[in-house]
Write a structure and sequence with these properties.
Strand order of the largest sheet: 15-16-17-18-24-22-23
Structural class: alpha+beta
Bound molecules: 2-acetamido-2-deoxy-beta-D-glucopyranose
Number of helices: 13
CATH superfamily of one domain: YVTN repeat-like/Quinoprotein amine dehydrogenase
Distance between the termini: 56 Å
Shape: elongated
Number of strands: 43
Helix content: 10-25%
Radius of gyration: 31 Å
CATH architecture of one domain: 7 Propeller
Largest sheet: 7 strands, mixed
Length: about 750
């Protein structure tokens, strides 16, 4: 069975040893290093035909930052640098440009902008920041307009954009930021625009403002410091009586030795009319509270990056889903979390106690609603509030309670920039939450939350080859697609491609609520509504055991894992065959079997998942690659291997399974001529492998020893490798965060060391 005649055992041992050495020397792949959090079951690289994305782009157009879906979902309006587009998205495939209206910043503004030392190459343009549907006939758009925020009413005719007329242009301060790098948010509620952004050129004066509509214009009070100078808005949503804003700022209420970021929700009442004597033209109902997204006993994810509202449904309350990152790089890598906050919890905190700043001691104290003031300060009561209540509001704008949530998903090694959420009905009748998460490096994760409140990642799609952030995500549910904006264009991403799951096992194990196995057509298909009851899906367990059992049951022990097709490989004696095993899932582990044996013998090696086999006498038979996932094993691929002139008789167990002849690509070296047929290629093969391994390990040792050593040395000089002897590690600002040089100049490994020593 084995190859004693070749007598190569010492060599194979050496080869194996070197191979192991090589594995040890290789730096851990990101998947291992950032081991925390769910692993995407499938990964698609940019351009993978299995997950075809349709890209709209055009020469001269860039920064596809702002997306707005028309009410009928037939048109996607896009704010790009210095223009607004209307894209027809009715047909699957690449969005079609219906109309483009240019809206460049004027030459004068561009000149002024450049004079103020802003870049005429990257900053002094009109970046569209706000794009909302005002009424049936008008859109409203705002842009940075070369650091001079400007807005415009754009007329629509049959969802076609009419050119911008100068008499429809208005000043946009407080609605769009000055600087394209600054965050902002805006939401239109009953013809009124609520916006949160930076209100000055320097970017030091945040504002939360109400404009348009018939109500008075209201602003936050800058002097009273309701918002910290670095407040950075990410989202806003209306509720019945109030509008909520989500943002991040420096926490002023904690006395801490270094700048501590915190995430906030603020709210204002829609019916706020501003104060009369006190708080004139200012909000009289502005309140804010801390949002806390943390695993118990861990550092919180304190920086909110984006949030979306999932409105109430028959059974569920409205929830806000938000992506967070952390100010602390735990273990040298950044990490992200998704938390869900119920609007009920948020409301509850706004009905609790307040915090107030004691002017004399500069300390924050807790305060209940003052006696004798009714209605409660900050509540959305109709009618004017008393001066006493407004005076209280001036410095009791922070709530004492926190809105707390435990993460649905924590993932290290990625930073999410954006998210979109929807619900999908599974075959079991339950509603599942589906989250699409865009990263800073251009990937999209499709995450599904099952009944136990935990998320799994169905897939990871690389949206574009160059790493850059996903700028925006917009779901178009009626189109069954998601649109993603980035610097170079807008992509249409179908919700799912169920046909990538080729077998019933794969379809069930995927646990994608959009896909189910149709036993009739023997295909994994998009789940239609109403759901066909006889299809197969198991969102909770992902257990294909019963769902995929077909044919005569109970006769053979392995009936459910019988291969669907057998690939027949016939070759000349002593050929070297490469039998590939497609890795369908990153959650599965793979192994090979030979007949009923799992021990493959000496005539074969597994390399990169494929089986390399020397076809000598007695090495033929059934070779199967098995995937084990979720406790379930099934053959991914099955080969029937034999000699050309004397194919072995097929195992009776396998009778009736369709067979397919596989030719050349599998046969690495074929012994055609008699002479060649008598030679064994095994020694050559091993020699080459060993030499290659030697060269590679040599190169690696060299690589690891020289530049990395140098980096280590440098790291130490900069004080990040180890602390000088005798110095204890104080818990101070410098030591909680690794010095910048550590993170940028040294490898992850060193940053790790660095943080490791200092956190002690
Ligand atoms: C879906 O996957 C199948 C097979 O993997 C592929 O042929 C097809 O083009 C894909 N379709 C899309 C829209 O990505
Ligand atoms: C920016 O200004 C520089 C110097 O004033 C000029 O040479 C360059 O052409 C300008 N670039 C653009 C894009 O206008
Ligand atoms: C929509 O808003 C624009 C701008 O405020 C206004 O001129 C127009 O009359 C409005 N149209 C409708 C149908 O209300
Ligand atoms: C409520 O959820 C169901 C199932 O997900 C969905 O079909 C329906 O459209 C939702 N209704 C609303 C009002 O969102
Ligand atoms: C490993 O296999 C995959 C797919 O089977 C292939 O794309 C990749 O190039 C292989 N890597 C090496 C080093 O052979």
């Amino acid at each position: 069975m084995a190859l004693p005649a070749l007598g190569l055992d010492p060599w194979s041992l050496l080869g194996l040893f070197l191979f192991q050495l090589l594995l040890l020397l290789l730096p851990p792949s990101p998947a291992w290093a950032g081991g925390q959090g769910p692993v995407p079951r499938l990964r698609y690289y940019a351009g993978d035909g299995r997950r075809a994305l349709s890209l709209f782009h055009q020469k001269g157009l860039q920064d596809f930052d702002t997306l707005l879906l028309s009410g009928d979902e037939d048109t996607l309006y896009v704010g790009v640098r210095e223009a607004i587009l209307a894209l027809d998205i009715q047909d699957p495939g690449v969005p079609r440009l219906k109309k483009m209206i240019p809206w460049p910043a004027s030459d004068k503004k561009k000149k002024d902008c450049a004079l103020k030392r802003k870049s005429n190459e990257t900053q002094c343009f009109n970046f569209i920041r706000v794009l909302v549907s005002l009424n049936a006939t008008h859109l409203y758009a705002c842009g940075t307009y070369a650091f001079s925020p400007t807005c415009v009413f754009i007329e629509l005719r049959d969802s076609d954009l009419l050119p911008i007329s100068q008499d429809k242009v208005v000043e946009g301060k407080g609605q769009s930021p000055f600087d394209p790098a600054h965050k902002h948010t805006a939401v239109l509620v009953d013809g009124t625009l609520y916006s949160g952004t930076m209100n000055n050129f320097l970017g030091s004066e945040p504002i939360l403002m109400r404009t348009l509509g018939s109500q008075p214009v209201l602003k936050t009070d800058n002097f009273l410091r309701w918002l910290q100078p670095d407040a950075s808005f990410v989202a806003a949503f209306p509720s019945t009586q109030v509008v909520y804003f989500f943002f991040e700022e420096t926490a002023s209420e904690f006395e801490f030795f270094y700048k501590l970021h915190t995430s906030r929700v603020a709210r204002v009442c829609k019916n706020d009319m501003g104060g009369d004597k006190v708080l004139q033209k200012k909000w009289t109902t502005f309140l804010k509270a801390q949002l806390l997204c943390a695993e118990p006993g861990q550092l919180p994810f304190n920086i909110i990056r984006h949030a979306v509202l999932l409105p109430a449904n028959f059974s569920t309350d409205p929830y806000v889903y938000a992506v967070f990152s952390s100010q602390w790089q735990i273990g040298g890598t950044s990490s992200s979390a998704v938390c869900a906050f119920s609007l009920k919890d948020i409301e509850h905190v706004f009905e609790g106690k307040y915090k107030g700043l004691d002017k004399e001691t500069s300390r924050w104290t807790t305060a209940g609603a003052p006696d004798g003031i009714s209605p409660r300060p900050g509540s959305c009561s109709v009618g004017p509030s008393s001066d006493k209540a407004l005076t209280f509001m001036k410095d009791h704008f922070l709530m004492d309670g926190q809105v707390v949530a435990k993460p649905l998903l924590v993932k290290s090694g990625v930073e999410y920039t954006r998210l979109a959420v929807e619900t999908a009905q599974g075959l079991d009748g339950h509603t599942y939450l589906v989250m699409y998460l865009g990263t800073t490096t251009g990937y999209l994760h499709k995450a599904v939350v099952s009944g136990d409140g935990r998320a799994h990642l169905v897939e990871e799609i690389q949206l574009f080859p160059d790493p850059e952030p996903v700028r925006n995500l917009q779901l178009a549910p009626a189109q069954g697609a998601l649109f993603a904006g980035f610097s170079g264009g807008v992509l249409r991403i179908p919700r799912a491609n169920c046909s990538v799951y080729k077998s019933c096992m794969d379809c069930i194990l995927a646990r994608d609520p959009h896909c189910a196995w149709d036993p009739e057509s023997q295909m994994c298909r998009l789940l239609p509504t109403p759901v066909p009851k006889f299809w197969g899906q198991d969102m909770e367990q992902g257990n294909p055991e019963w769902l995929c059992a077909s044919g005569p049951m109970g006769r053979s022990l392995r009936s459910k894992s019988r291969p669907q097709i057998i690939k027949e490989v016939l070759a000349a004696p002593n050929s070297i065959l490469e039998l590939p095993c497609p890795h369908l899932s990153d959650l599965a582990s793979y192994r090979w079997s030979w007949g009923t044996a799992t021990d493959l013998g000496a005539s074969s090696v597994v390399y990169n998942g494929s089986l390399l086999l020397v076809l000598h006498d007695g090495a033929g038979g059934l070779y199967q690659c098995w995937a084990t996932e979720n406790g379930f094993s099934y053959p991914v691929v099955s080969y029937w291997v034999g000699l050309q002139d004397q194919p072995p008789a097929l195992d009776p167990e396998l009778a009736g399974i369709p067979r397919e002849r596989v030719e050349t690509p599998l046969t690495k070296v074929r012994g055609g001529a008699t002479l060649a047929a008598q030679r064994s290629y095994w020694p050559h093969f091993l020699t080459v492998t060993v030499l290659l391994t030697l060269v590679l390990s040599g190169a690696l040792i060299f690589l690891l020893s020289s530049p990395l050593g140098a980096l280590r040395a440098r790291g130490k000089v900069q004080g990040c490798g180890t602390l000088p002897p005798g110095e204890k590690a104080p818990l101070s600002r410098e030591h909680l965060q690794p010095p910048k040089e550590c993170r940028t100049s040294a490898s992850d490994m060193d940053a790790n060391n660095c943080l490791g020593t200092e956190m002690v």
